[in-house]
Structure formats: C-alpha cells, structure tokens
C-alpha cells in the first residue's frame, strides 16, 4: 500500500494505534495480484482473530509483526504467549471466556486418553500428522453425548498420558542463561515458561 494511504487510515482507539478492517477489506476483494490478496487476508486473521485489541481494527504492531514473517521469524512462541496471557486474564478478572477449537481439543483427547478409542499412530514418524488422521477418521454412529459424559466421569490418573505417542524425541531448551525458565515475548508483554515443569508432567526425570 502507498504510504499516503496508510497515513490516512491510521486511527487511535483507546491508546491503541490501528487501522480499520473495512479499509483493508476493499483491497482484499479488488487487488489484481492474488498473492497480495491472500497476504492481506492472512494479515486480517492475525489482527482480528489471533491478536484482537480493538474490535473491527488491526493494531499497527501486528502489521510490523506480520512483516517480520517474511524474514523467517517464527510466530508460534508469540501466539502461545498471547493465548496464555488471554486465558490468564479471563481467570484473573473472573469473567469472559476463551473459545478454543473443538477439533483441536478432540485431537488432544484422542491422543492422550487411553479410555477413548484413539487413531492408530505411527510412532515418531516425521510424515505423520494427527490432524490429518483425525480428518480421515470414520466416526461410529453409536457414540453419544452420554458416552463422553461417562468417559470424563470415570477418568483416573492412569487413564491419561501427558506425552502423545506421536511426539518425536527432540532437544529441549530449558534454560535462559542461569535461569531455569524461558521468556516468551508477546506483542504487549511477556510471560515466563518453565519447560522442566512440563517435562515433569510427561513423567520425565
């Protein structure tokens, strides 16, 4: 986009510098270059869904972050940190809710609950995708709501494995200098992540 166009669109909402989604929507629909349209649409998802700050607007900080993706910056730690931050805020203020992806939760259950009929996994296979296996799975018609209620009501500690069978062993970064935790930097603040505590859930020594 031209610099003059950007300057006209920038607004300030509740101390947040942002651009209205409506301004970008026209470009998504009208640009002749298909890749530019796809990139703008992906940017909208980042700004409106993953990092929502002001309703109907995309924060300028997200634009800067999105631009860095071209330089090979890995967005996963930032997204995880922001998700954790959102969940922590909901819990602290005692209101609001976090709506996650039901399909991802279902994949997690099929991967970790021994009492649930799980998709057969190829142990430590680089080509295996649990999501792809989930989408190909044939669901039996007799599985009902009562079945799931019974599964959850009767779960014991030994019925759950915290390490999914398809996770491949890998080198673990567990320290930052002399500190036993890793800082995950988000767009607005950071959170501390202690991998060794997670490893303890995996029953690692």
Task: Provide key terms for this protein.
single chain, 205 residues, mainly alpha, 2 domains, 3-stranded antiparallel beta sheet, 9 helices, 5 strands, 46% helix, 9% strand, globular
What does this structure look like?
β1 and β2 (16-20) form a beta hairpin. The protein has 205 residues and is mainly alpha-helical. The relative contact order is 0.09. A three-stranded antiparallel beta sheet has the order 1-2-3. It has a two-stranded antiparallel sheet with strand order 4-5. The protein is built from nine helices and five strands. The protein has two domains: 3-73, no CATH class; 102-201, no CATH class. The mean pLDDT is 77.
Strand proportion, as a percent range, falls in 5-15%
The amount of helix comes to 40-55%
Overall 3D shape? globular
What structural class do you assign from the helix and strand content? mainly alpha
Low-confidence stretches: none
Number of strands: 5
Largest sheet features: 3 strands, antiparallel
Q: Averaging pLDDT over every residue, what do you get?
A: 77
Q: What's the domain count? A: 2
CA gyration radius, whole angstroms? 21 Å
Order of helices and strands: HEEHHEHHHHHEEH
How are the strands of the largest sheet arranged?
1-2-3
Spatial gap, N to C terminus: 53 Å
Number of helices: 9
């Amino acid at each position: 986009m031209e610099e003059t166009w950007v300057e006209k669109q920038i607004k300030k909402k509740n101390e947040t510098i942002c651009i209205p989604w409506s301004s970008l929507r026209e470009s998504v629909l009208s640009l002749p270059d298909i890749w530019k349209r796809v990139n703008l649409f992906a940017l909208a998802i980042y700004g409106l869904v993953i990092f929502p700050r002001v309703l109907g607007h995309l924060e300028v900080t997200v634009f800067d972050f999105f631009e860095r993706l071209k330089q090979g910056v890995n967005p996963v730690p930032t997204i995880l940190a922001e998700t954790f931050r959102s969940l922590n805020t909901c819990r602290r203020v005692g209101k609001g809710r976090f709506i996650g992806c039901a399909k991802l939760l279902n994949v997690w259950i099929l991967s970790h609950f021994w009492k649930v009929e799980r998709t057969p996994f190829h142990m430590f296979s680089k080509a295996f995708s649990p999501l792809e296996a989930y989408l190909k799975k044939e669901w039996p018609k007799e599985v009902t709501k009562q079945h799931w209620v019974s599964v959850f009501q009767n779960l014991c500690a030994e019925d759950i494995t915290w390490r999914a069978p398809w996770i491949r062993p890998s080198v673990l970064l567990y320290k930052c200098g002399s500190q036993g935790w890793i800082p995950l930097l988000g767009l607005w603040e950071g959170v501390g992540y202690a991998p060794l505590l997670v490893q303890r859930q995996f029953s690692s020594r």
